Automatic annotation (TrEMBL), chain A:
Residues 68-84 have a biased composition (Low complexity). This is Uncharacterized protein. Residues 1-25, 65-87, 211-245 are annotated as: Disordered. The lineage of its organism: Bacteria, Bacillati, Actinomycetota, Actinomycetes, Propionibacteriales. Keywords: Membrane, Transmembrane, Transmembrane helix. It comes from the Bacteria. The keyword Membrane applies. The chain crosses the membrane at residues 44-63.
From TrEMBL, chain B:
Belongs to the sigma-70 factor family. ECF subfamily. CDD domains: Sigma70_r4 (cd06171). Residues 15-81 form the RNA polymerase sigma-70 region domain. Residues 108-161 form the RNA polymerase sigma factor 70 region 4 type domain. It comes from the Bacteria. Keywords: DNA-binding, Sigma factor, Transcription, Transcription regulation. It comes from Nocardioides endophyticus. The keyword Transmembrane helix does not apply. Pfam families: Sigma70_r2, Sigma70_r4_2. This is SigE family RNA polymerase sigma factor. PANTHER family: ECF RNA POLYMERASE SIGMA FACTOR SIGM, RNA POLYMERASE ECF-TYPE SIGMA FACTO.
């Protein structure tokens, strides 16, 4: 039997007796999803405005000398405090997310692995708001493996250091790999305005494990939506930290 | 683009191509028609929400098939994916009953069972390469992997199908395409 015969067998297997439903049902379903997405975006926008307003009030309080005890500063090496998540914020669940050669101890609900390469993995929202093309990074979470963290604002969480930068609609968090993993830095690029707050981004980044198959990426050309390395920052850590026991 | 215009185009596209998408989804899901229907519904919704991209595509149907395959692969990777497996439709249950040897229906059941015994990615490779006639490079592009991975997955999948179908007394000779 030739490949033509295989196609005939598949043709037979693909036959279905189901009647195609009225396209109006698909249209109604799609319109409802579109309206729900619009409502989510409006709410996310309002949450962002509210967050800016709160930050503005906080800044005013500091500038006018009012008591701000107990409020962490936004300076370097700060330890993030638990925050109240917006209703539409990303929810992380304690389930393993496999994105070979990377695995995560946490899984963001409503997001799924889209593209897998040894040098990069793409995780995208499943609401249809972004391209299906795995190499189009617009609006998606991108995981990369690099020789060193690119620098940025330093944040320590549970004895592990992270570097945070933000530009061009994305927030990037980098950290050294853990002992026992391939030596290098894992870098996660999060799209802004998609429900990820800093604590959630840090928690998800901290849950990553880099497998042996990971390869360094970071070519000279950046695909759509990718923040070029030379825009991220040039500050380099002097040595590779280790986790506290 | 006006919403009315988008809706009109979407309805026409759905009327023309939904059955094709259902057949592809049926193969990806190895005959699980409820799962296939879910995939198609979600795919059509995603297409509607990004209809401008569908319009720009050289082949909207090819774009839709790619979206469908991506969704299928994404679902298989989602750790917390939950699916109900009950079948309330008695006609679907009847289709699973044993059938006479030598009929097309028996061969269909055997092929679906063989597909079901493949891993999702290998099944996707078989569907893309041998049902949708994509070449190795196109298949690798859709699945986001290397051409070498496609070749090796395809070879393993065909060898597995050959073994399973021969065990079911269907002596199909499945040759790997170049």
């Amino acid at each position: 039997m030739t490949d033509h015969d295989l196609k005939q067998a598949l043709h037979l297997a693909a036959s279905t007796s189901r009647h195609a439903p009225d396209p109006a049902d698909d249209l109604a379903r799609a319109r409802a999803a579109g309206q729900a997405r619009s409502r989510r975006r409006v709410r996310a926008g309002l949450s962002g405005i509210a967050a800016v307003a709160v930050l503005g009030i906080g800044t005013t309080a500091v500038l006018t000398g009012q008591d701000s005890s107990g409020t962490p500063s936004a300076g370097s090496s700060s330890t993030p405090q638990p925050s109240t998540k917006a209703p539409d914020g990303i929810q992380l669940v304690a389930e393993t997310l496999d994105a070979s050669p990377y695995t995560f101890d946490l899984t963001p609900q409503g997001w799924a692995v889209q593209g897998e390469h040894p040098w990069t993995v793409t995780i995208a929202p499943t609401d249809g708001s972004v391209s299906d093309h795995p190499d189009d990074f617009e609006g998606k979470l991108v995981i990369m493996f690099e020789p060193r963290p690119p620098g940025g604002r330093e944040v320590d969480v549970d004895g592990r250091r992270f570097w945070i930068t933000g530009d061009s609609g994305y927030t990037t968090i980098s950290t050294w790999t853990l002992p026992g993993e391939p030596e290098g830095a894992v870098r996660l690029q999060y799209p802004n305005d998609t429900g990820w707050d800093e604590d959630t981004m840090l928690a998800f980044t901290a849950s990553v494990h880099v497998g042996d198959g990971a390869e360094f990426g970071g070519g000279s050309t950046e695909p759509d939506g990718m923040q070029p390395l030379d825009q991220v920052g040039a500050q380099r850590p002097s040595e590779r930290p280790t986790l506290e026991p | 683009m006006r919403d009315e215009e988008r809706s009109t185009e979407f309805v026409e596209f759905t009327r023309t191509h939904r059955r094709d998408l259902m057949r592809t989804a049926g193969l990806l899901c190895a005959g699980d028609e409820a799962h296939a229907e879910d995939l198609v519904q979600t795919t059509l919704t995603k297409l509607y929400l990004s209809w401008a991209r569908v319009r720009r595509a050289d082949s909207p149907l090819a774009y839709a098939r790619t979206s469908l395959t991506h969704l299928f692969i994404d679902e298989t990777k989602r750790a917390h994916r939950r699916r109900e497996t009950t079948s309330a439709d008695p006609t679907l249950a009847l289709a699973r009953e044993p059938v006479r040897a030598g009929t097309d229906l028996e061969l269909r059941e055997a092929v679906l069972a063989a597909l079901q015994s493949l891993g999702p990615r290998q099944r996707a490779v078989v569907v893309l390469r041998h049902w949708l006639d994509l070449d190795v490079a196109e298949t690798a592009h859709v699945l986001g992997c290397s051409t070498g991975t496609v070749k090796s997955q395809n070879a393993r999948a065909l060898a597995h199908l050959r073994t399973v179908l021969e065990t079911a007394d269907h002596h199909l000779i499945l040759e790997e395409s170049p």
